[in-house]
Each structure stands twice: as structure tokens, then as C-alpha cells.
Amino acid sequence: MQINQSKEGNTIVLQLAGDLDASSAIYLDEELEKVLAMPVQRIFIDFEALQYISSTGLGVFVSYMDRLKERQVQMVLYGMSAKVHHVFSILGIDKLLTIVPTKDAAAQII
Amino acid sequence: MINYSIKTTCKKENLKQIRVFVGEKLQELGVKEPESDLMILAVDEVCANLIIHSNKNNNQPLEVNIIPQKEGVAFEIKDQGKYFDYSLYEPPQIEDIRREQRKGGLGMLLVRKIMDHIHYETHSDFNSCHLFKKVAF
Question: Which of A23, A59, A66 is facing B12, going by the closest CB pair?
């Protein structure tokens, strides 16, 4: 899996590409730790190039939910394929996170 | 019907090749998306658990067998690590996983949602996980 980080104003964008599975989720975890060490207000997670996600990937997002809330950092996930979105929906995790179709839609969330 | 088998080792890096193998064989068997995607995910989750928890990411053998059946597809996943006693498994609450900031614990929940039958066995020199998913071919 590849992760590309960029900064757009007060938003950090993490672009994910490839497969987010038990062998690669650690890299996303480490990247989110680094981002949380920054004075960030929003984190965008771009899924457009992500082809696969397993429970380990889901678990990384779930594990950060309360910390993000405490820090008042908003995380928005966008650009998911139907296949990846379905994995979030199987356990209802799509209802716990902010998931929108596009980056434009993410930018409109205040 | 033909059975398909892949033999590899209990390294996390091998999960991708297992997913590719299962995907190719399910396609050959005529299993369509999204059912095939869900079965690939379930097999991946079981293999990941065996690699990480039962075998500690070592070089012990890991074998995945795909057994087509009249009403669906069965999978047999064999390893030689610590036996996972599924009869003792208690499904965690997602809210607890969230509150405790745990990275794991969701895999078996997914497998239970996806598969119609889950069964674990232990033998003298190996353990096996048996999964079955009904498919309308």
C-alpha cells in the first residue's frame, strides 16, 4: 500500500493506494499518529486508489475515532469504491464515520 | 469437481497472494461479485488471524483449499500453530473496540457476517478452519 500525505490549508490529506490489509495497516496507523502530532483541524482520507480493505484497516479508523473527537479533529473519508464501502457497511462502521462520495463533498462539511 | 489448493507460509506478506489465488479460482467457478469479494475477505480474515495470533508471523505452513460443492463453496484453511478454539469465542461489541482504541477484533465479526458455516478442528499435527458459503451458481 502507498500513502501520500499533502497539506491543504488546515487540512491534511492522506491518499491511500493499493491494499489496506493486515500487512499494511500499520503504515496507516503510523501516518495517523504523525498527523495527530500536527496542529491539524481536518483529515481527509482519499480512498480513490484503494483497491482492498480488510478488518485491520477498518480497525485503524475505529481506534482513532475517540481521540479525534477529543482533539476536535474532523476526519472525512471519500472516494470509496462500492466494494470498499461495502466492507465498512457489513458491521455498520459506515454509520460511525463520516463518509462522502467525493472530495468536493468532503470540503463542504463544516 | 476439482479442488484448488495453495500452500504458503504464515507471513503477513503472503496474504495478497492468497487473495489473488482465491479470487482467480472463484472466478473460474463462476462465482460473481460481490459474493466472490466477500468470500475473499472472509478467507483473508481467517488467514490473517492464524498468521498473527496462532503462528506469530513465522514460516510455518499455511494451506488454503477451495472445495466447490453443489450448493456453494467450502474452504479449508490448515495451519500448525496454536489452536483457535472457536467454541470459546465471544463476539466483541464494536463500541468496546472503539472505546478501548483496539486495532483488532473486527475480523471474526466480518467472517461471521459473511459465511454461512464456520467450524474449527484440531488434529494431532495440524488445525483446520472450515468455512462454507451458499452460492447460487
Answer: A23
Cβ separation B15–A21 shorter than 8 A: yes
Spatial distance between the Cα atoms of B90 and B108, rounded to a whole number of angstroms: 10
- Give the number of domains in chain A: 1
Predicted-assembly ipTM surpassing the 0.85 threshold: yes
Contact predicate A98/A109, CB 8 Å:
yes
Residue-wise pLDDT for A65-79, tens only, equals 999 999 999 999 999
Whether B82 and B53 have beta carbons less than 8 Å apart is answered as yes
| Cβ contacts of A1 on chain B, cutoff 8 Å | none
Q: What is the CATH number of the domain that holds A59?
A: 3.30.750.24
* B66, B40 Cβ separation under 8 angstroms: no
Our count of domains for chain B comes to: 1
